[in-house]
Structures are given as structure tokens and as C-alpha cells.
Design a protein that fits this description.
By secondary structure, this protein is α/β, with parallel strands linked by helices. The longest helix is centred in the middle third of the chain and has 25 residues. It is built from 10 helices and 7 strands. The protein is 41% helix and 13% strand. The mean pLDDT is 95. Helix 4 links the parallel strand 4 and strand 5. A 7-stranded parallel beta sheet has the order 3-2-1-4-5-6-7, with helices on both faces.
Length: 285
């Protein structure tokens, strides 16, 4: 306990899923939380995104730990608004020590127009860059930046959208964003190391969240079925991992986030940490 005592952390995509889990685990370790989420749907992304009610629930769960929390509905693609929201929250809480760039979408399906590529890339890469760059203005020596990547960044780009594959333009945009996150965070880690600010990326496999559990994603895993169920998809989910599991849980990622946010990892930077049950091994990495 208290591994993050005295720290303030901003988390994007905090209304549910991994982001909510990170907020709770960090608060349990003593951090005050700035919880941000779009709280609206994006048309090319066919599964529903988080709501204001979801974000409010995250705030209540953080407060149960006795920590302060500031929430805001903001789109990470909108840097000017994101900057104002973060500046105001940092002023209210008295500082910023950790940035968790977690917000993401994953539109799937060949029926989605090219806008799916644009939206996925803009949220999953441009949104990460926006979050980090406005956050760096507040970080000082000892600060930590943690980015949510994905093993999807290991898949050949040509395999994501060409040849009638089930991912479509949105999957291609998602994969490209996750590829670029790897190089971006390595370059930024070198740049910020003289300032004693650390930059690390966590790459999960499938995670037990709404991004995984929706019909468009089930169709990616079961293209042989017109309307696959969760049960249908879960028959093949384990094929992705080397370990015989269908997916990891949000807390599996949150434990790594807490470590990278804490002073225990004070000399850990530029790392690409795969919390993936061996999925990257099966992909040859």
C-alpha cells in the first residue's frame, strides 16, 4: 500500500475497462486521479463507448479509496480542450506525476469505410501523443508516462486490411497506431531521460473488456459464422496466447501500471512490456 502516495495521475479512457481498473488500483496505492473519457460514441466504431454514468462510477470507486478525483468528458483528439481540462485539473490537485495514455478504440469489419482507419489512428496514436505532450508540461524529475500498446502492433500491416481480411480499415488504423506507439515511446524515452522522466509502454493481448466483447470483434475471431456469440469466440480466443487462456484481466495490466508509476521503477524507461500470456512469442517476437 501507499506505493503512489503523494502522486497525481491522469488517465485517459478512465470511464471503464482498463482505464477504470488503473484508476482504482492507483488510488488504492495512494494516488489522486484525473479521470478523462470521451463519454460519447464515435460513428465508425460500432460497439458503444463509455458514458458519463460510467465515468461517474469510476469517480465513486476512486473516492472509496479515500483519494481525490477530478473527472472530465474530453476527446483526446482535441488537444486544445484536452490541455485546458488537464491544466485546470492539475491546478486543482496541485501537480502531476504520472500520465497514463490509455484511451483507445478498435473499429472492426470490412464494411466500415476508410473513416474507420482515420478514427482509430487519431484516437490510438494522435490521442496518445496529445495526452503525453500536454502532460509533459506539468511533469518534473521523477515523472512517469505509461502508454497502452497492443500485440496488434506486431501483426504485419498488410495482413490487417488487405485480401478481404475481417479487420478492415479500422483494424488497419488500430494496428498502425500501435506500431507507431512503440517507436514513438522509445524515441521520447531517450529525449526525456536527461530530465529523469520515464516513458514506458505496456502491450496487452486480449483483455476482458468491452473492446473485446462485442459482435464486430467476435466476427474477427469467427469469420466462419454470420453472428457469432461470445461463447463462439471464446472457443478460439486461446489460440492467440501461448498460455491456455482466452484473455487477461484488467488487473493484470493495472499491476504493471502501478509498478511503472511508482518509484520502484525509477530506472526503468523505454521498455516495451508485453503482458500477453505469451502471445508475442507465438507471433515470433
Amino acid at each position: 500500500m501507499n506505493r503512489l502516495s503523494g502522486k497525481v495521475a491522469v488517465i485517459t479512457g478512465a470511464a471503464r475497462g482498463q482505464g477504470r481498473s488503473h484508476a482504482i488500483h492507483m488510488a488504492d496505492e495512494g494516488a489522486d486521479i484525473i479521470a478523462l473519457d470521451i463519454c460519447a460514441d464515435i460513428p465508425s466504431n460500432e460497439y458503444p463507448l463509455a458514458t458519463q454514468a460510467d465515468l461517474d462510477e469510476t469517480a465513486k470507486l476512486v473516492e472509496k479509496s479515500g483519494r481525490r478525483v477530478v473527472t472530465a468528458a474530453v476527446d483526446v483528439r482535441d488537444r486544445p480542450t484536452l490541455k485546458k481540462v488537464l491544466d485546470d485539473a492539475v491546478a486543482e490537485l496541485g501537480g502531476l506525476h504520472v500520465v497514463v495514455a490509455n484511451a483507445g478504440i478498435c473499429p472492426q469489419g470490412n464494411h466500415i469505410p476508410y473513416r474507420g482507419f482515420i478514427d482509430a489512428f487519431d484516437v490510438d496514436f494522435v490521442g496518445v501523443v496529445n495526452t503525453i505532450h500536454v502532460g509533459l508540461e506539468h511533469l518534473t524529475s521523477g515523472g512517469s508516462v505509461i502508454v497502452t500498446g497492443s500485440i496488434a502492433g506486431l501483426v504485419e500491416q498488410k495482413d490487417l486490411a488487405t485480401g478481404g481480411g475481417p479487420q478492415g480499415p479500422g483494424g488497419a488504423g488500430y494496428g498502425m497506431a500501435k506500431k507507431m506507439v512503440r517507436d514513438y515511446t522509445k524515441a521520447l524515452a531517450l529525449t526525456m531521460a536527461p530530465h529523469n522522466i520515464r516513458i514506458n509502454t505496456i502491450h496487452p493481448t486480449n483483455v476482458n473488456t468491452d473492446m473485446l466483447h462485442n459482435l464486430p470483434m467476435y466476427k474477427v475471431f469467427r469469420p466462419d459464422l454470420p453472428d457469432p456469440t461470445r461463447e463462439d469466440a471464446e472457443l478460439v480466443f486461446p489460440l492467440l496466447q501461448a498460455m491456455p487462456i482466452p484473455y487477461v484481466e484488467t488487473e493484470d495490466i493495472s499491476h504493471a501500471v502501478v509498478y511503472l508509476a511508482s518509484d520502484e521503477s525509477r530506472y526503468v524507461t523505454g521498455q516495451q512490456l508485453f503482458v500477453d500470456a505469451g502471445a508475442s512469442l507465438k507471433l515470433g517476437v
